[in-house]
Amino acid sequence: MFSLDWIYYAISWILLAWHSAWDAIGVPVGAVIGTNWAWILAIIFLVVTVRVILFPVFVKQIKSQRAMQALQPKVKELQEKHKGDRETLQKEMMELYRKEKANPLMGCLPMFLQIPVFLGLFHTLRRLNPDNQGKTLYGWTVDQFNSASNAKLFTAPISGKFGSTADELSRLGASTGTVKVVAGILVLIMIATTYLTSRQMILKTGWAEDPQQRMVQRLMLYGIPLSLLISGAIFPIGVIIYWVTNNLFTLGQQQWVLRKFPPPPTAKSTSAAKSPVQPTKAGGLFGRKAAQPPAKAPAAAPKVAGPKPGAKPVNPKKGGSKPAKRQG
């Protein structure tokens, strides 16, 4: 059976290294405002460490998405050409991707690479219980394990969950109401930031032409945030802190990378051609844009003023069909 111990050791090492660093800098080990900041900062900078390592992969993801957007006109031609022949269409599209060196799966690679980190942190924090006998597992010392087990965020233990029972929380020395309030607020923030990261990417890159890719985009935008409403109840508070920090890091990183690598002109022209009346949305994380000035109406033909009352009618036909009388 495939073992994930190497992931648990790696996550524990990074977490403990950052905790030791903050302890050495002088961050209080004890609780301040009901929070053990050294452990909270260790989780936050675990995110920073992972994202710095994965940054080159993230840039490749953006480049791959740009390549996929540039190929949309050719993909549409293939769809029209092989309409009804799905097998041939798939072969032709794979050949097109291979020829242009575009990888449709590259867009999901950073997310897949972060899954082991998430699982490792989830498993590590789930073990933080004063009654746990395997305190020295994965490179921890007994003192480090006990310190992390008692670490809190606003008096809520970082190993506590929204769905924890009263008995579980009593062993952690925590109040059920406090844990539910802190965990509940963090879950809502997690859902909101997850939605915003997906929305930011779609606003900048546009909806995919391919129905399957568009379905994946809708799943990322709506499905995953909604699923967190349920799964968030089983996440330890420390894991939710990791998730929220990761989302905030993603928002900033995407904003920088999307400016560095803007959408190709072909994608902009395609979307503009499809909707000539409504311009594509630009800028704004929430899809806001500057108000467009109203279009100027075409200049109307000048009106001919009618004759004034009492004036003699003017004959519009000067030099009419009747010949003028000869004089003399």
The count of helical stretches stands at 11
The secondary-structure class comes to mainly alpha
Largest sheet: 2 strands, antiparallel
Q: Which bin fits the share of residues in helices?
A: 55-70%
Spans of 5+ residues with little confidence (pLDDT < 50)? Answer: 267-284, 286-291, 316-321
> What overall geometry do the principal axes of the alpha carbons give?
elongated
- Could you give the count of β-strands? 2
Beta-strand proportion: under 5%
- How far the N terminus sits from the C terminus, by CA atoms, comes to 128 Å
Q: What is the helix/strand order? A: HHHHHHEEHHHHH
Cα-atom radius of gyration: 32 Å
Strand order of the largest sheet: 1-2
The chain-level mean pLDDT equals: 78
Chain oligomer state: single chain
Structural key phrases:
mainly alpha, elongated, 1% strand, 328 residues, single chain, two-stranded antiparallel ribbon
Describe the 3D structure.
- With 328 residues, the chain is mainly alpha-helical.
- 60% of the residues lie in helices and 1% in strands.
- The protein is built from 11 helices and 2 strands.
- The chain has helices spanning 5-25, 37-70, 72-81, 86-100, 109-126, 142-149, 166-171, 176-205, 211-231, 237-260, 265-274, and strands at 152-153, 156-157.
- It has a two-stranded antiparallel sheet.
- β1 (152-153) and β2 (156-157) form a beta hairpin.
- α2 packs antiparallel against α5 (109-126), α8 (176-205) runs antiparallel to α9 and α8 runs parallel beside α10.
- It is elongated, with a radius of gyration of 32 Å.
